[in-house]
Structures are given as structure tokens and as C-alpha cells.
Amino acid sequence: MKFLPNFGIGAFLYEDNYYIGLAIPKLVENDFTYNYQNYSTQSEVRTMYLHGGYVFFIDPMSRLIFKPTGMVRYSIGLPLQFDLAANLLVYERLWLGLMFRSGNAVCASTQFFLTKNLRFGFAMDVTYNEIFPYQNGTYEFTMGWDMDFYGRSYIRAKYF
Which among 37, 105, 155, 156 is placed 20 to 30 Å from 127, CA to CA? Predict the structure, then answer.
């Protein structure tokens, strides 16, 4: 057994209509010569993430809300990668989104708010690089429950 600690750092700034964040989840690059057959060193690559988004109210009644987002990833020794997404919130109940990932994938996602606290979602991505004939994409189903631990009398809109 070997002790391999790691830690990260990040910051997230947001207001009602935008957010921006920076994160480095793994600051320590561990040495895996002890048990290299059972552990991938790829998971220890130091990666920096810069992400942000903005909310545009297309009509004053909030029936259509447009949220473009972006994320840039940088790993030491690897090419810079980015994700660009466009999301549309319809009647504050249904998110519809498309995302482009540089170099290898496109993604479609949706999320439906059943109640103000309960939501269900589905996302899929498809690669468009050399592994496309051998991989049929990934599929993800989500369920979320929002809780307010502060007992506020109002519910803040959750756009991100």
C-alpha cells in the first residue's frame, strides 16, 4: 500500500446572469512506479480549467433564455482543448443544448424540471475522430433534487 495524496484549488465567481471559474483539481503529480499495472497515470495529469457562461433573456417574460458557455482545458505537454455550448431554456422548464468539443466530439443535452426542485436530464455525445466506427457515443441520464438549507422565502433562478 502506498499513500498518494493530492489536492486542488479553484475559484467560482457568479452573479444572476454570468459565471466564470478557474480550477486545477490535481496539483500534485504522483509517481506510480509502485503499482503501475493497476493505476493509470493519465488521471494524475495536471490540468487547468477556465470556464464561463452568460445568460441572455430573449424576452422579458423569461419564456426563452439563451446561455452560451465555454471551457478551455490546458494540460502540461498536451494541446489546448475547448468546449463551446449553446443552451436554450424554454418557459423555465426545459433546457435544450448543443456542445462542440475541439478535436473529437459533439454533444446534445436536455433537462426537464418536473417541479421547482426535481429535474431529469439526458445527454449524449458522439466522437468524430478515428475511433468513430468503433464507439457509438456515450449516454447519460441524470436526476437532481435541489434543497435550500438556508430556509429562504424565495427561490433564486438556477441558470448554472
Answer: 37
